[in-house]
């Protein structure tokens, strides 16, 4: 260690990262301080430490310091690595993490102390009651239901029945309070807390979730204004219906939700008829966006994932009942003309109507994605390291092994408002991922009957023909139709083919790159909602 710098003892978290970063700029050749900065920047989790353990270029720092956070992390790292004197090390780490929480009130420090105690519970048996009491005190003082859930989830191993009963009563009071305030984001976490505390069985939790999703949808419905699109309402009712799927004795609730879904679909397409395609939409989403309370990365991500994939059946039904013009009777086909005057596709009036509706809906979603991500970036920009840790924790079965770096780069670009780069990075990876899913399900993607055995094209992978369709039965039909339309249909966006042949302008690359980034985010984080993944290949997050 250089004698030219010292790390202050009483700075933590972001302030500590800032100071270490400043030192690295002053001493760019000092690898130890760079390693220390990487260690302090990373989340305090086993997974993060294991990344450093597996990195042959990472060496644990020998820098001498009394900074509590650095000493705690170093001892924690040493324990996970299995180093010498790890029991004394874990004791020191637990003590320091608790002191760090007391100084900063940042919950992640206390949660890490609990995680370490759980690993060697017998070492801390004389202090379990103390930590249990501390947990209840902290729970009472937390304002965030998400953090309360994190605390209960992590401390469950040490909570005795009396403590669980006390926390249950507190959570029930909060549930009632949040219901009176229509705070459905907080309600969701209180229901999970009550499930963890065994007040709700798993089925009880699903029923409660469905009821509150319905109430949230009803609230948004009651506040509707004319000519404003509310994409979340249909999603809320649909999600509620999914929650109670397979639960007996819920016929009344299922019928009620089904009727509301039908009414919402009908209302949406009535609105769609009156609107025209526009890349800049005039609808005001401010009230709806405010209701989502996008205050951090997680709440923004939830909003993005709730935006729905287009419903093929509803689009088709709408096109059958709403002819586009009286001229349709005189023509047997519609053609799509490129900006060079060439014909890129040909279709009939029905499919033209469906494509017309699709294009409008995409523009609505694009507009919403931009507004949501802007709020996320403006309020709480996520670092690349933090996003890498998030992706690693998710362990999406959509991403083949060895391809994680592409998705890290491509998806992170979206949170930097760089959708041109995101689109170009993600397009080829989507094709490879879809082929990987086909192969995992025991199907073939290679033309084995030809002299030179090439892979099938994306057009073959996304074929909508049920006979021989590679993704038939293993990919959600609405998603398959939308990928086909958006990526390879010459009558629609045809985005993959245009990107691969360099035919998109910067403006079009940015515009449709937003949609591609969003739909990739859905496939990566909600893989099991859209694809059949064999159990042996399914990652458990």
Automatic annotation (TrEMBL):
Q: Record the organism.
A: Chryseobacterium rhizosphaerae
The protein here is known as DUF4209 domain-containing protein
Name the Pfam families on file: DUF4209
> For the DUF4209 domain, which residue ranges apply?
430-522
The lineage's top-level taxon is Bacteria
Which InterPro entries does this one have?
DUF4209
């Amino acid at each position: 260690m250089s004698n030219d710098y010292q790390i202050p003892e009483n700075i933590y978290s972001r302030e500590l990262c800032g100071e270490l970063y400043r030192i690295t700029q002053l001493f760019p050749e000092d690898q130890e301080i760079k390693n220390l900065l990487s260690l302090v920047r990373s989340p305090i989790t086993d997974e993060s430490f294991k990344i450093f353990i597996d990195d042959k270029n990472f060496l644990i720092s020998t820098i001498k310091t009394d900074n509590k956070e650095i000493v705690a992390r170093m001892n924690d790292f040493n324990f996970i690595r299995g180093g010498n004197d790890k029991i004394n090390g874990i004791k020191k780490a637990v003590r320091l993490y608790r002191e760090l929480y007391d100084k900063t009130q940042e919950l992640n420090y206390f949660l890490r102390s609990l995680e370490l105690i759980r690993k060697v519970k017998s070492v801390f048996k004389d202090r379990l009651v103390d930590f249990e009491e501390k947990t209840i005190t902290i729970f009472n003082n937390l304002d965030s239901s998400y953090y309360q859930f994190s605390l209960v989830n992590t401390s469950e191993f040490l909570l005795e029945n009396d403590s669980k009963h006390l926390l249950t009563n507190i959570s029930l009071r909060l549930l009632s309070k949040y219901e009176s305030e229509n705070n459905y984001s907080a309600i969701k976490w209180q229901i999970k807390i009550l499930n963890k505390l065994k007040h709700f069985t798993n089925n009880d939790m699903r029923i409660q979730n469905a009821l509150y999703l319905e109430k949230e949808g009803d609230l948004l419905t009651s506040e509707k204004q004319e000519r404003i699109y509310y994409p979340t309402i249909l999603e809320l009712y649909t999600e509620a219906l999914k929650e109670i799927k397979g639960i007996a004795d819920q016929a009344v609730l299922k019928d009620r939700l089904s009727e509301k879904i039908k009414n919402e679909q009908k209302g949406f397409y009535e609105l769609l008829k009156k609107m025209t395609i526009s890349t800049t939409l005039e609808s005001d989403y401010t009230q709806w966006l405010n209701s989502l309370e996008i205050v951090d990365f997680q709440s923004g991500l939830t909003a993005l994932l709730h935006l729905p994939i287009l419903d093929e059946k509803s689009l088709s039904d709408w096109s059958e009942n709403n002819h586009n013009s009286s001229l349709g009777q005189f023509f047997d086909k519609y053609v799509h003309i490129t900006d060079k005057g060439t014909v890129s596709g040909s279709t009939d009036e029905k499919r033209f109507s469906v494509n017309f509706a699709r294009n409008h809906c995409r523009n609505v979603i694009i507009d919403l994605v931009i507004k949501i991500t802007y709020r996320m970036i403006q309020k709480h920009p996520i670092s690349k390291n933090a996003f890498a840790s998030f992706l690693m924790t998710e362990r999406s079965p959509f991403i083949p092994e060895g391809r994680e770096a592409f998705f890290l780069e491509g998806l992170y670009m979206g949170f930097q408002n760089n959708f041109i780069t995101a689109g170009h990075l993600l397009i080829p990876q989507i094709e490879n991922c879809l082929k990987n899913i086909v192969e995992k399900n025991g199907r073939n993607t290679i033309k084995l009957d030809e002299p030179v055995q090439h892979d099938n094209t994306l057009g073959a992978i996304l074929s909508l023909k049920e006979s021989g369709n590679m993704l038939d039965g293993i990919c959600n039909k609405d998603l398959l139709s939308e990928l086909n339309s958006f990526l390879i249909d010459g009558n629609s966006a045809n985005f993959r083919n245009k990107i691969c042949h360099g035919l998109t302008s910067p403006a079009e690359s940015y515009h449709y790159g937003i949609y591609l980034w969003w739909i990739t985010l859905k496939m990566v984080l909600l893989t099991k909602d859209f694809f059949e993944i064999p159990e042996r290949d399914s990652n458990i997050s």
